[in-house]
Amino acid sequence: MQQAEEHLDVLTKTGLKTGVSKPRGDVHRDGDYHRAVHVWIFAESTRELLLQRRASCKDSWPDLWDISSAGHISAGDSSLTSARRELEEELGITLPKDAFELIFVFLQECVINDGKYINNEYNDVYLVTTLDPIPLEAFVLQETEVSAVKYISYEEYKRLLAKEDSGYVPYDVNGQYGQLFDIIEKRYKENTVARSLTLQKQISRYAPISLSAELTGLTDSDKEALVFVVKAANVMDEIFYLQAWYSNPSLRDWLKEHADTSEFNKLKWSYYQINKSPWSSLDEDEAFLSTADSAIRLLSKATRIVKDWKGLEYRAAFPLLKPAGANFYPPDMDKMEFELWKDSLEKHEQKEATGFFSVIKRHSEFILDSHLSDNKTGSHDLYIVPYSEEYKSLLAKASDLLHKAGDISDSPGLKRLLHSKADAFLSNDYYDSDIAWMELDSKLDVTIGPYETYEDKLFGYKATFEAYIGIRDDEATAQLKLFGDNLLLLEQNLPMDSAYKSEDVNAAPIRVIQLLYNAGDVKGPQTLAFNLPNDERIVKDRGSSMVMLKNVSEAKFKHILLPIAAACVANDQQEHVDFESFFTHTICHECCHGIGPHTITLPNGQKSTVRLVSSTIYFTREISLIAKTFAVNLIIKDT
Fold it and tell me: Which SUPFAM superfamilies does UniProt cross-reference here (predicted)?
């Protein structure tokens, strides 16, 4: 029985899907734009690239040396799944997704075979970094695609391409494809001394401080409970590392293990600890590490077994450009794919897909990882996994620790919070636990769970896990009651049409704490305060609560604001630069997170939220609100 011809998704000239698919032969006959994958295997120890010789029966460039592995992305398939599948089919190499690093996208536009074959192809170019060359006898070649393989120095290969050697598929090394050679050269020829100096400068932008808080106000029971709460906070750390990127935990463990082997490695580990990922928070998420710095993993059965060869060792990869969707979505998923899939779901499923507490995954990836037959469930590749399932073992551990802490605590409000949060970790329903957090009145103040969505730069939907543990400053908390009680006044005086103002803004509890410990999504510059929860159901029903981290604010004032003032403010005016004004400004900023429209009615009459409608610009809009200055002025005038 003749196999049906592969269909490809037809793209616009700018690379967007048109919604049309056509047989592969027709696509190349008509010159339609389409997608493909290129996979390069690079051996670190020899600085060599693996090439394959294309089979003599190929329509394009038969018998020429080419990319390690390549192939079209079939209609409806994803890029990374296609790359993994092509490598397995053509060369007999089975690798997990963390072996593949997307390094760039290359548009190839050419006409060959006397105009009969038009190739307008967007290629996702992946790099697989192995420690050593794979023995040639380990490969299982697909004879209809590949006739031979060989390794060649990347410099020699670049030279052959530059002189347009007739034995090799042509690529313009002075054009887009030159990025492959530039990336390899930068990684393996870069000056270690220069990198060390750069890391030292990056680290020096942060001021190390010691946090201290008076524990004498805690009961003995709460002190004992604190031990278990800190352990649960450390679990939030583990989850956040995984949320940032799927190979991030491996990278962390590798850097920590090798930190003492050289001064350079110590610097890498130090700066990684600040950022909790290979991307620098203060440099617009520019990578300060590369896959060449990453963990080495061994796979004994990735290829055909070769006597006296222990197996394939590769670097756990991560991209130079920080993924907008972090590890909440498949790395090769774009907004259009998500929106088309979401619109096909039932209303309750759409709510879950765009909710705070779920990740989006691919059936095809699960099938590849499980070595199952390729049989998708339903017509769509994407599916939803709640946090309670995705992080099941870690959340079970955190839940157990919080239940133990709750059993020990003798503070009713804290006991309620700890038990309800422990239950929420397993049920994925955080409503009751967030109400308990808002009403917390104990000396030991605990914020723990999935809250902020800044890490999801694709949509702003998914929440990261975090923990803040502190001692409540009762005197400072009492002094700030004025601000929380005046939220309705602020709402009524917002400079906008009254139709958008809420009539039932609740007073917002404000708690001032001395921070003891934080974990999870607390990377880079440290926060001074937070206004939670972000769940619109709770904001609508109960409002929100604020927590001010006073000792962190004092440290920022001392180490950042005062030096700026010394450089920028006239000497006779510096006496007016005081901590209380700085602290008040932060309070008003947080107050303004709790006012303004949250739930809205769209032109079609449908109810929605500002967060869902504004998506990725939501928090930019929130943070840039000038209302915080307005709030200071209004409250001062009113009181």
Answer: Nudix
Task: State the sign of the Cα–Cα–Cα–Cα dihedral 452, 457, 462, 466.
Answer: negative
Q: Which residues are CB-neighbours of 570 under 8 A, at least 6 positions away?
A: none
The model carries a pTM of 0.89
Q: What is the pLDDT of residues 79-123, one digit of tens each?
A: 999 999 999 999 999 999 999 999 999 999 999 988 889 999 999
Spacing of C-alpha 242 from chain mean position: 9
Question: Residue 531 and residue 494: Cα distance in Å, rounded?
Answer: 19
**Contact residues for 503 (Cβ-Cβ < 8 A; gap 6+):** none
List beta partners, residue 242: none
How many distinct helices (H) and strands (E) make up the chain?
Answer: 25, 22
522-462-274 Cα angle (round to 5): 20
Full 3-state SS string of 226-267:
HHHHHHHHHHHHHHHHHHHCCCHHHHHHHHHHHHHHCHHHHH
CB atoms within 10 A of CB 147: 17
List b or e across 362-400, with b for residues whose CB sees 16 or more CB atoms inside 10 angstroms. Answer: bbbbebbeeeeeeeeeeebbbbbebbbebbeebbebbbb
17 C-beta neighbours (distance < 10 Å), count: 17
3-state secondary structure of 221: helix
Q: What SS3 class is residue 609?
A: strand
CA distance 510 to 495: 24
Contacts of 474 (CB under 8 A, 6+ apart): 443
What are the structural domains, with CATH classification, of the chain?
7-188 (3.90.79.10), 190-245+323-639 (3.30.540.30)
> Element (H or E) spanning 369, and its range?
helix 363-370
Helices (H), 18-151: 24-30, 79-91
Name the phi and psi angles at 463, rounded to 5. -95, 140
Tell me which amino acid residue 187 is. R
Per-residue pLDDT tens digits for 450-478: 999 999 999 999 999 999 999 999 988 88
- Do residues 245 and 327 lie in contact, with contact meaning Cβ atoms separated by under 8 Å? yes
Say if CB 582 and CB 230 are below 8 A apart. Answer: no
